[in-house]
Amino acid sequence: MKHSIVVMIATITLGLLGSWLCLADETKIVWENSDAARLVQSRCITCHSLDYIQMNAGVIKGANWEAEVNKMRKAYGAPINDEEAKQIVAYLSQKFGGE
Ligand code: HEC
User: Fold this and answer.
1) 73 within 8 A of 89, measured Cβ to Cβ
2) 42, 72, 82, 83, best to mutate for ligand 1 pocket (most atoms within 8 Å of CB)
3) Whole-structure pTM value
4) Domain assignment of residue 40, given as a range
5) C-alpha of 1 from chain center
6) Are 43 and 91 found together in one domain?
7) Predicted pLDDT at 97
8) Which H or E element spans position 12?
9) Closest-lying ligand 1 atom to the alpha carbon of residue 76
10) How far apart are CA 11 and CA 21, in angstroms?
11) In this structure, are 41 and 77 located in the same domain?
């Protein structure tokens, strides 16, 4: 009897730990199946991890994504043309923009 209680508690603990790990995993970026999402992934991954986008999303908001993408292009030479930049900025502002 005592033994089964121990097993039960262990099972519950592992279950909670498991769901916590799943939650943690959900903070990873989920990319939609869209042209803009694919564009961001293909253009922004060439120099650094896509995590950079999410890591800085709390600081970079709304219109600032335009400045950020311009910085990647002008300061770091990201190979992104005007049309692509427009789509990327719109996508990032909507996804990570906040207000
Ligand atoms: C030509 C290379 C290059 C490309 C392409 C590029 N970046 Fe960057 N990015 C950089 C460099 C260099 C840094 C600064 C790295 C560091 O500080 O470690 C950076 C840093 C960042 C940061 C962190 C904040 C900052 O300003 O330092 C963000 C956010 C970011 N990039 C977003 C993007 C996005 C969004 C794209 C796609 C539109 C992109 N980058 C494409 C080179 C690039």
Assistant:
1) no
2) 72
3) 0.78
4) 35-96
5) 47
6) yes
7) 81
8) helix 2-26
9) 1
10) 15
11) yes
